[in-house]
């Protein structure tokens, strides 16, 4: 997660981003309170929620099912309404199980 925060800080410093938050691909839309990664459908084993989050119904919405990295909350996570807020996604690349290619 530090890698993703580093990317966000870099984008801000080069003036390429003024986003308030970024979608990280974590959702509890299927079972409330069970946060799963969208791409693998696996439960999150690590979370970094801002104090008081996930709030489920903050901001007047009763449907906060999408986790975001919230820039103004020191890059901690906040759940938001998936339809109400359209944040850009920021994702880590998946690892590869293949051996590195030997050159030479
Ligand atoms: Ca939720
Ligand atoms: Ca929230």
UniProtKB/TrEMBL annotation:
<dbReference type="InterPro" id="IPR016187">
    <property type="entry name" value="CTDL_fold"/>
</dbReference>
<protein>
    <submittedName>
        <fullName>LECH-like protein</fullName>
    </submittedName>
</protein>
<dbReference type="Pfam" id="PF00059">
    <property type="entry name" value="Lectin_C"/>
</dbReference>
<dbReference type="InterPro" id="IPR016186">
    <property type="entry name" value="C-type_lectin-like/link_sf"/>
</dbReference>
<dbReference type="InterPro" id="IPR001304">
    <property type="entry name" value="C-type_lectin-like"/>
</dbReference>
<dbReference type="InterPro" id="IPR050111">
    <property type="entry name" value="C-type_lectin/snaclec_domain"/>
</dbReference>
<feature type="domain" description="C-type lectin">
    <location>
        <begin position="1"/>
        <end position="83"/>
    </location>
</feature>
């Amino acid at each position: 997660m530090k890698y993703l925060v580093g990317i966000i800080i870099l984008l801000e410093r080069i003036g390429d981003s003024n986003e308030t938050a970024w979608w990280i691909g974590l959702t509890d839309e299927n079972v409330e309170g069970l946060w799963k990664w969208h791409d693998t459908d696996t439960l999150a084993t690590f979370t970094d929620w801002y104090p008081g989050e996930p709030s489920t119904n903050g901001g007047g919405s009763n449907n906060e099912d999408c986790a975001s990295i919230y820039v103004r909350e020191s890059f901690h996570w906040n759940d938001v309404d998936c339809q109400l807020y359209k944040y850009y996604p920021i994702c880590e690349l998946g690892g590869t199980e293949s051996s590195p290619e030997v050159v030479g």
